[in-house]
Protein 1
Amino acid sequence: MSARPKVGLFVTCLVDLVRPQVGFAAVKLLEQAGCDVAVPEAQTCCGQPAWNAGADRDAKDIARAVIAAFEGFDYVVAPSGSCAGMIKRHYPEVFENDAEWLPRARALAQKTHELVSFLVDVRKVSTVPAKFAHKVCYHDSCSSLREMGVKAQPRALLGSVEGLALEELTDTQVCCGFGGLFSVKYPEISERMADDKIADACGTGADTLLAGDLGCLLHLAGRLKRESKTMAVRHVAEVLADMGGEKALGET
């Protein structure tokens, strides 16, 4: 590999369609970490909704397109533990009985990382030149925590942000209720879980809720708005990249 590794940024559907500035923040952080970053135009969804819904043929078609678009990079990085987890943990399952594509899926899986864990664990970033004078709490998404092993890494970098004070949630390992299709199939349960997570966040005294997965953030931001509760919601990459001055999720 070159001294400046070539990183393919997997932007994710939600970032592309709802919160593009998370993608710009990811590029900034990766470039600060000494990487050459490209965003393949051919990339699409990671295929997780199809895979979770049992649409295996569609999941395979999507996964093939992702593999073809990204296998030429030294690393694949996503600002989402959910999408990174799909590629890293589930692509080998998607092609379990496919002798042609399984090796390619495994090769891509081995070099796929969630953004903040890549910065800390691979690029050995320990500080960021960012300022954010707010009290924040951090939500660990299920996929980041359980599939990608992301917990200490965002906290380590947030600790270097000037002016930031981190207050921990009481139930850090409890789901927010989004869960992709779960929130569609079981809206009442999902709503209650979101309310419990929001109550936990508000109880910290923080004015800003951070996380590394936009699905969770949109879910919680929507519930906060419906309940008329004033707490800013941001992707952690925005704060680490010193882009916290932009409007938070849900702000108009």
Note: Residues 135-240 form a domain with the Rossmann fold fold (CATH 3.40.50).
Protein 2
Amino acid sequence: MKKILHNKLKRSVLYTVIGLSAAYAGLSYVGGDVAQAQPAQNETISVSMAGLPDFTGIVAETENAVVNIRTMETLSTRARGGFDPNGDPSELFRFFFGPDFMPPRATPQPRQRGNNQPERTVPRGVGSGFVISDDGYIITNNHVISGASKILVTLNSGKEYTAKVIGSDQRTDIALIKIENDEKLPTLKIGDSNTLKKGQWVLAIGSPFGLDSTVTSGIISAINRDTGEYLPFIQTDVAVNPGNSGGPLINLNGEVVGVNSQIVSQSGGFMGISLSIPIDEAMQVVNQLKETGKVTRGRIGVQIGAVADEVAKALGLEDDSGALVSNVEQGGPADKAGIMAGDVIIGFNGSEVKKWSDLPRIVGQTKPDTESNIEVWRRGKKQTLKITVGEVPSNPADEVVASQEETEKPVKADRLGLVVGNVSQETMTRLRIKGGVQITEVDGPGQAAGLRTDDIILAVNNQDINDVKQFEEIVGKLPKDKAAALLIRRENLTQWVPVTPSK
């Protein structure tokens, strides 16, 4: 009996291990049999006898084009927070208690400034990169080389070079560096990140914690992951740690599809969420850096935000896609094109704006001075306007901030819990608005929706507000228990706010 149970236990454990292996390899386990899933048509991955993926061919083909990057920084001894043991003894106290510490009965000593402080070159950090042309151009992250006084590149063969920076872009975290070599260097093929799909196998090669030519693997976890940055990231579960930054994310065809850039972690180490810059986005930056040493981006001069679902319904939109214009820069491209605060931008130059964060990316990739079509949703219908794209300036324009103004005698609008008054002509001129009413008191539904005193109501649903009388009439006809969208101007921003009237 013990022998039978022992044999059953062995089979159970064996099936469990096979099942886990099959799940890891993308295979299905049914009734104790392992059924191999059919590979995609463009897959070049080999499968071992055990049914697990074998990446050895891809690694052999690509790893020689991946480099280790070490950066150095020149600092003064005093800048490192140290003290001179042969100098003023009070410096020892300042080292521990801060630069303003004054020992009892000590005579104040003037701080010495100037360039006569001793300097030393210290290691700054470790990262990765990959060669994209045989004459020595290398892609890495901006944060890997930013602030470095010296950049050392080590090839997989062990040869070390000093690199020069061709250009870098902080906004996309992409940098292009170059090394000089008499022989042609191995390069990586550039893939197409637009064809990536969830669940697809990918590899990362880099130098985590300085360990050269380390290979890790995983799958695509998400595409177009919006983290609030300028780019939509590729999310993977590939093990990426400090030192992997700037290294390639490689598909099963041995092509680069991303540049490893960030990890999402509470500990500072790998926790299963890694973010990579899509190679299509990276190459647009690299091509500009190679040509001019800098990145030129388009702009249209608007502040935007997401479209709330209730606002979309109130405005007659099919869904909450698009970018809600909250402010238009005076004299900017959008202003000249006739775009108004409260418009919802739903398309630009033939590209659909699905999320508000799509617009800066699409516009940024447009060459300045290009005339483009921009589609906006305004007062219940779509309009197409012509706009000439501007260039992102080095210093952003000063923002116009609305200050408090006196209003005319307030009138109560009971159903929204608001007391409003007409907007003064001076305020309308300064804010470049026509009409509207200004809130002087707020309670009930309006307060619950987040409205404040001094907010200016420019429109209700798809109707512009001219004065208090008209506003009162519109509010009185609003259907009960259905949210109305109020276009609110608050300081220098304009936004739609859904408010459900009381009965």
Note: The chain has four domains: 1-38, 44-104+118-293, 298-391, 411-499.
Protein 3
Amino acid sequence: MADRKTDIDLTRLFSDDRAEFARLGKRTMDSLADYLTRLPDEVVDRVVPDDERAYLSNLDFPDQGMSADDIVTFMEQHIMPWPQPTGHQRSYGWVNSPPMPVSILADGVAQTMNAALDGYDFSGIFLMVSLGRWLMELTGIPDEEDSMALLFSGGSAANLNALTTARYWAAKTDGWNVRDEGLQGGRPAMIAYASDQVHSSVQRCMEQLGLGSDNLRKVPANDAFQMDVGALKDMIAADRAEGLRPFAVVASAGTTNTGAIDPMNAIAGVCEDSGLWFHVDGAYGGFGGLDPRYSEAYVGIERAHTVTIDPHKWLHVPLDCGALLTRHKSLHREAFSLTPDYLEQGEHDGAPWPYEYMFQLTYANRALKTWAALARMGKSGVRDLIIRCNALADLLDQLVSDAPDLERLSPTSLSVVNFRYVPEGQDLDPAQLDDLNERISGAVSDSGEAHIPTTRVAGKISLRACILHYDNNADDMRHLVALVRRLGSELSGT
């Protein structure tokens, strides 16, 4: 090895970058600060131009590495000018919120330390214990001996973990071990239940778990887009009569499409009476019970076995961060633990190693950025944020109701408002109305003034606004309504 030569002295290269880190960091931070400062006055929806797409998609791999300064310049010129609209206060399209500045800084600290939470003494392990208690307090989940929080990439991964544990629990209840036997033993099919409004990740979980989408029963929703509990009971009874194995019910605490909140207390009762695992998908709306207006709707969430929440949604934590709150960590450990000899065994001074409770082994420190956001706001700040966003949605609902050419398409729930433009004096058929509102959505983006994509509600194209930005105010709601009405009038010729 001694006679082998290389063209690059990597030791010197990385040493130089460490020595220059303060200067490079200041330059980068100055660019980020400028980005955040200018963002409110920028075009809301900035689509990447064709020439920029082609350039970024066809970069040559340099033989000699770029300088650190050139890399920062590249990011300034070719990456930062083309963000998704989510950071802008007049973007209403997604349930992902803009990252809180202090949480961005905390994530930088975590990334610099580069410590994986996979079985060695590290501050983030212990911080997660406190963070879990905070998240459970905010959602109303009891902080019991067998409770804990796990952090994931998002709600989809959290739902998968919950349903994997539910599948294990159901098999154990029936006297067999799904980890040992798998699903090829000819046992009765396991059946899960969810509203027909449930997030698509639940179906994907059933597919990934080998249970199949045919065994996910979509329970009809009522006019408020909430699960029909009577229909749920009937479907469980019918499946049992067929010799099938009902095992879990997924309730939604704030659906993505309409913000609907399933009747959790009633569903919890059905699960307890029927011996089913009760999971709540509250990825978007899990914190909604902090608003006194909605607190009654959240009664029963404390009875759930598991609850999914996404701090990168309403809590303004940088992507990515989902969370699963469980009251049965011992079952999660039974469902997942498989610790190799080279990793720590069990728990370390009372702090659980995350890999004992999930499929993932290497596990980045998402706790620090989440803790920073919550610590910055405090309990009262989180509560006030939830209340304010919901109040702004109520204002938007009222503005829509007062406008003669706007029609609300679903009951406003939490911070989600669905509506469409219906021109006065014109008798448009459903397809024409759908086309008009699709064009209005595109015109809103083209205007640079806002961003409001479409969805379908009861088969109709809807302009869907989700209010989550910490800067959102009443003027934003008035501006959105005025913009939609003006563009709708122009496009429909009224």
Note: The mean pLDDT is 93.
Protein 4
Amino acid sequence: MKKLINQKYLSGERALFQGENLNIQYSTFADGESPLKESHDIELDHCLFKWKYPLWYCKNITMKNSTLFEMARAGIWYSSQIKISDSVIEAPKNFRRTRDITLEHVTLPDAAETLWNCEGITMKDVTAKGDYFAMSSKDISIDGFKFVGNYSFDGCRNVEVRGASMLSKDAFWNCENVTVYDSFISGEYLGWNSKNLTFVNCTIESLQGMCYIENLKMINCRFINTTLAFEYSTVDIQTDGVIDSVMNPYGGTIQAKQIGELIMDSDKINPKKTNIVLEEIKHAV
């Protein structure tokens, strides 16, 4: 049985330090750092967090209908079993070295440097904006994602994304084992230096996208204004549409209706390693 804390104004450093088995409702955590540090088995409903480091070294936290304001930055670090729903996280630099995170119907208007070095992340119907989102995290499942921000998912492993809309330069760099379904991604230099990167039924807009990738698969994708693609990548590309330009793929197969420009520099790659299957090439170099 959890102790009920209802409609309280909590201030001062470590206001509920090492709290346990608490049901906190309609309460405000005002000035004062680390109000719930080292707490566990906490339910939060309609709570407001207005100052730094609210949930460090915590375990088994459920939060709903709540808000982390801008100054609640670096809010959830070194914690585990965190579930947040129907909430707004305005503060940047949230979630560091945290495990087993579930975010459902959550908005992150300033998600800069959020979700770093985390593992076991599930996101459903999340909206976020900010650079360097989800760096060096692993075991990520996303369904319904609206995102604006550069350098997202750098260094991530074991990622599955469904139904996303991402405006993100340098997304999915240095990644391994990433699959993206039914999504729209716009941004330069998509996916560089990654391994086992797959896109299924996606629409891509990218300058020099999908380069330096080992084992790139793109199934039934559409390319909008995508130029100088696939440089030094091993590829398995299948599209019924047009690719504006392709530059020096390292090997594999590209199947398309049309390639606007095909650049194959024999002094840089072996053109015979790439099988080009298409209806028309407008210009070959």
Note: The mean pLDDT is 96.
